[in-house]
Design brief:
single chain, 210 residues, alpha+beta, Glutaredoxin, Glutathione S-transferase Yfyf (Class Pi), Chain A, domain 2, four-stranded mixed beta sheet, 4 strands, 51% helix, globular, Glutathione-S-Trfase_C-like, transferase activity, transferase, Gtt2-like_N, Glutathione S-transferase
Length: 210
């Protein structure tokens, strides 16, 4: 088994974070996105969507998409649970992880991919080229501001995104905000004290360094 990865990309980082929290050591293969290696014929054959991460199993099966890779790893290595150990917990964690992805992660991608000069013509990931739309970058930043405000409200009442236990929802939210800080220079609001406290706790976890 091996993980096709790119060190600075946020989606592979989500999987590495998940793996680290599970105590899993899976070999990685770097797909150099800066050199557009995701479009090379060999990688296209592995993943026609031309995205990372991809988990390649020993029999050659290729699994892409972060939640799906994590679900596979959770099923294979259920302890410690990061996606819930009962039907109710799985549903609640899945709901919050989906919200973190829709409201936060996709907003960050909207802002980054529609503004960085190096991504001109690559406003969406995948095999097709799409022009940047500057208004979407502006909207993405506003969505991220709203995301941080809403998440701060949530974290006033609970220690973690999906409840009192650390889960994949925390990974998605943390990687999103850390990426936004690095690429968009978008700091956590000073007044969002609950968000600041949560961010510091998650940053201290082993997976945050993965």
């Amino acid at each position: 088994m091996k993980l096709h990865d790119y060190p600075t990309a946020p989606n592979p980082r989500r999987v590495r974070f998940f793996m680290a929290e599970k105590g899993l050591a899976i070999p990685t293969v770097t797909v150099d996105l800066a050199q557009r290696a995701q479009f090379a014929p060999a990688f296209r054959a592995l993943n026609p969507a031309c995205t990372v991460p991809v988990l390649e199993l020993d029999d050659g099966t290729a699994i892409s998409e972060v939640p799906v890779i994590c679900r596979y790893l959770e099923d294979r290595h259920p302890t410690p649970t990061l996606m819930g150990d009962t039907a109710e917990h799985r549903a609640v964690i899945g709901m919050w992880d989906r919200r973190m992805e829709n409201d936060g992660y996709l907003a960050a991608m909207e802002a980054v991919r529609n503004s960085l000069p190096g991504l001109a013509g690559r406003a969406l990931v995948g095999p097709h080229n799409y022009a940047q739309i500057p208004d979407l970058a502006t909207r993405g930043r506003q969505r991220l501001a709203d995301f941080m405000t809403d998440l701060n409200v949530r974290l006033r009442d609970t220690s973690h995104v999906a409840g009192e236990a650390f889960s994949i929802a925390d990974i998605t939210a943390f990687v999103t905000l850390d990426f936004a800080r690095a690429r968009l220079k978008l700091a956590l609001p000073d007044e969002a004290t609950a968000l600041h406290a949560w961010f510091a706790r998650i940053a201290a976890r082993p997976g945050a360094q993965a």
